[in-house]
């Protein structure tokens, strides 16, 4: 007698589910690493970069006994160092760090909003370099509130706030009507 064993060739439901979970995880990782998550992620990275730069400059100012500053415009920022021999601010790099085209920067010093110039294609003359934010060798920082946001009205807005002694941290800006 012949035994007839009916074995189906194919995949079980569990095997198919495991493959779908693995594929979903890989696609999720790919989407996040490419940055398809939108400009909010890039804006947060820019804000973290600026907060990190301020922290490094504050430490350098104390360690090197140098005065540093940030020259801000609506689309860019540049690091300056005070040269006591020339009694003038000198740029540390040839060109400022440009923000993405869809982002803008604004600043309040000691509660007063400053009108930032638009970044121009030409370099300003060396005598006009005067920073808005100061990072002093005494450890003090200009009290400020930097707002970094998307240009569109309903876009994400992030803020960096310092009371003059503490380093800023990146926070989401609260709408004017919701402040507590």
From TrEMBL:
PROSITE patterns reported for this sequence: PROKAR_NTER_METHYL
Top-level taxonomic group: Bacteria
Sequence intervals crossing the membrane: 12-36
Record protein name field: Type II secretion system protein H
Membrane topology: Single-pass membrane protein
Keyword Cell membrane: yes
Organism name: Pseudomonas leptonychotis
Keyword NADP: no
GO cellular component, one term: plasma membrane
Family annotation (Gene3D superfamilies): minor pseudopilin epsh domain
InterPro entries to which the protein is assigned, alphabetical: N_methyl_site, Pilin-like, T2SS_GspH, T2SS_protein-GspH, TypeII_GspH
Localization, UniProt: Cell inner membrane
All copies of domain General secretion pathway GspH, residue ranges: 46-163
Keywords from the UniProt entry: Cell inner membrane, Cell membrane, Membrane, Methylation, Transmembrane, Transmembrane helix
GO biological process: protein secretion by the type II secretion system
Gene of this entry: gspH
Family of this protein: Belongs to the GSP H family.
Major location (coarse): membrane
